[in-house]
Design brief:
This protein is an alpha/beta fold. It is built from eight helices and five strands. α6 crosses α7. The radius of gyration is 16 Å and the shape is globular. It starts with a strand and ends with a helix. The structure holds adenosine-5'-diphosphate. Adenosine-5'-diphosphate binds next to α2 and α3. The site of adenosine-5'-diphosphate has 18 residues, from α2 and α3.
């Protein structure tokens, strides 16, 4: 059976960093909706222009756009062995879309990284200064956190009810967190 994982958590929780390590370990691709949007934006595609108008405000891109983009990505051959989703699902409606896209086999597990809000804002402001990501400014960050608490946090509750949520302490060094995730995944 293939390994189908989601890495979940608030903006700045370290999903991207940990996803890269875990996906390499497991030899599966990471599918990051944020990265997919950013590559569309840098190509200047129509989808990129549309997404940019939401991302620059820290709002969610409409589901039909995001789900369509993900559906196309999941059709590629490299997802045979499984995949690690980063940034999706972010709303309860997106859970339903993912259920439809995956069919019977569903997900293996959802890994949730837990980090306190004060630390998230610090990390993201620092990242904005280094990477120049246009949505890493303090106002937009606060909006992304508000959107997370309102729309995305309920996603974790749903997977907890399904018995699929693995919660990991997302504080400490990158390697410490990676070890916690690796141990949890090895028990699957
Ligand atoms: P972060 O998790 O740090 O906020 P991401 O790179 O995952 O960063 O996402 C950046 C932005 O891309 C989000 O603020 C949102 O506007 C958009 N986005 C990413 N994934 C989704 C999604 N599943 N649904 C809607 N919008 C999304």
């Amino acid at each position: 059976m293939s390994t189908r994982l989601v890495i979940f958590g608030p903006p700045g929780a370290g999903k991207g960093t940990q996803a890269e390590k875990l996906a390499t370990d497991l030899n599966i691709p990471t599918i990051s909706t944020g990265d997919l949007f950013r590559s569309h934006m840098s190509e200047g595609s129509e989808l990129g222009h549309l997404a940019a108008s939401y991302i620059s405000r820290g709002a969610l891109v409409p589901d039909e756009v995001t789900v369509g983009m993900l559906r196309e990505r999941l059709e590629a051959k490299d997802v045979h062995n499984g995949f690690l989703l980063d940034g999706f699902p972010r709303t309860l409606a997106q859970i339903d879309s993912l259920d439809d896209l995956l069919g019977e086999e569903g997900l293996s597990a959802v890994i949730e990284l837990q980090v306190p809000d004060e630390e998230l804002v610090d990390r993201l402001v620092k990242r904005g200064a280094e990477s120049g990501r246009s949505d890493d400014t303090e106002d937009v960050i606060r909006n992304r956190l508000a959107v997370y608490h309102e729309q995305t946090a309920p996603v974790a509750d749903k997977y907890r009810q399904r018995g699929q949520l693995i919660t990991i302490d997302g504080t400490g060094s990158i390697d410490e967190i990676a070890t916690r995730i690796r141990e949890a995944v090895s028990r699957l």
